[in-house]
Design brief:
The protein is mostly helical and 424 residues long. Helix content is 72%, strand content 0%. It is globular.
């Protein structure tokens, strides 16, 4: 059982590589697998006689408490839910996510993984993801004449953010690793990653890239020469996409040539935002019930629904959460990120500026996506977020508690989430 912790870490972070098993979207199978992996991990922890982690309980952390309050308020919103089965499905996913934070935290505690080691793992997954992306694209174009730019995701926007979330770790590895092989791995991953981003041409990812570039220049302002090759990877990715890949897969040059700030998709999103805000104002306390936006959306947007396309999401996680579970629940969810950023600020003041700014880049990317899309419903995006929250919690240890209590508390969460996944 020497590599047990590493295996579980890769299983959770590599959830996007799970096959679709013949389905159009592999989201449901990913949620189910996550619940089973978490359940197996906690069962091993309870049945294996190991020395307890002394001196701290994750339950005492402000980030974890805020997320737990968000889950509790989601439970409370079921009272007003029109479709309680949908609410239970969504609730099961929330329980899986909060239990994943505990599992990541336990792995970090036991393995004492350094941030450089973390960056190696994430950069390796980035390299695997972009290699799969281009192999799959090549096969789809040359064998089937239909370019598939979704990569390991079921949606191009999800794939773009999945790649982009890993790039700050690759940048950190490139700058701080002394091994040429690791530097090369991270640089190749970044170059192919940026190429994929320019092929996909997601507006959210471009906004996030600009924000991350600014943070990176602040982080490495005193050693700017180290950013030379990473900056060239952006230029190289752009040139590869524009001059070679896009003309190969599209007659009009691809999405990048047709990108605009405002289009039909943007206007539709604005309609979703308006309805979500109105819903929050009408139901500020408990909302319309967790998981019930898709029910509400059918009635609210019947004039703009095309064919059988139903607006399952408001394309803004914060507005959708506010609409589904009310303003208090929204505040609890926002508090997760506020406490995370505050913890990073404290870490920054302690002298770990580059690590703090690397994780801040990750959070900025996630928040940009959360304000334009629906990452909370996608395991491939949520697992990296839960991992980063666990890293921050691992550093932000200020209060005392019982590790044993945390273990059985996590067990209860995982069992409930797994049960609801099977039952619903």
């Amino acid at each position: 059982m020497k590599y047990t912790q590493q295996i579980f870490l890769l299983l959770l972070l590599g959830i996007g590589f799970l096959p679709k098993f013949g389905g159009v979207d592999n989201m449901a199978s990913q949620w189910l697998l996550l619940s089973l992996v978490n359940l197996l991990y906690i069962l091993l922890e309870i049945t294996t006689k190991r020395k307890e982690i002394k001196g701290y309980s994750i339950i005492c952390n402000s980030i974890f408490k805020s997320y737990f309050a968000f889950i509790l308020l989601s439970v409370l919103s079921i009272i007003v839910s029109l479709n309680k089965v949908e609410s239970l499905i969504e609730l099961s996913r929330g329980l899986i996510l909060i239990s994943s934070i505990w599992v990541f935290y336990a792995i970090l505690k036991k393995e004492k993984i350094t941030f450089l080691q973390t960056s190696k793992i994430v950069s390796f997954l980035l390299l695997l993801e972009v290699i799969y992306y281009f192999v799959n694209l090549y096969v789809s174009v040359h064998w089937f004449s239909i370019p598939n730019t979704k990569g390991i995701a079921s949606n191009i926007n999800i794939e773009a953010i999945s790649v982009l979330l890993k790039i700050p770790f690759a940048l950190y590895l490139y700058v701080h690793s002394k091994k040429m092989m690791l530097k090369s791995m991270s640089l190749v991953g970044m170059t192919l990653g940026f190429t994929a981003l320019f092929i996909i041409s997601s507006r959210a990812s471009f906004l996030a890239v600009i924000a991350v570039a600014i943070i990176a220049m602040v982080a490495y302002r005193e050693e700017f020469k180290k950013l030379l090759y990473p900056l060239l990877s952006i230029i190289g990715g752009f040139l590869l996409a524009v001059l070679y890949v896009n003309p190969t897969i599209s007659n009009d040059g691809g999405r990048l040539n047709n990108l605009s700030i405002i289009n039909e998709s943007s206007l539709t999103r604005l309609e979703f935002y308006k309805e979500a805000i109105l819903s929050i104002l009408e139901n500020p306390i408990l909302g319309i019930g967790v998981g019930n936006w898709k029910i509400f959306g059918i009635a609210a947007h019947k004039e703009i629904i095309s064919g059988y396309i139903v607006p399952y999401h408001a394309h803004n996680d914060f507005l959708q959460i506010g609409a589904e579970i009310g303003l208090i629940g929204l505040v609890a969810y926002i508090a997760v990120f506020v406490f995370a950023v505050w913890a990073l600020y404290k870490y920054y003041k302690k002298g770990e500026q580059k690590i703090a700014l690397t994780l801040l880049s990750f959070i900025v990317i996630y928040l940009v996506d959360a304000m334009l899309n629906f990452p909370i419903s996608r395991p491939i995006i949520q697992m990296p977020l839960m991992f980063v929250l666990a890293i921050i919690i691992n550093w932000d240890e200020e209060k005392q508690g019982s590790s044993l209590m945390s273990k059985y508390f996590a067990m209860a969460l995982i069992l409930k989430g797994t049960f609801l996944q099977f039952w619903c």
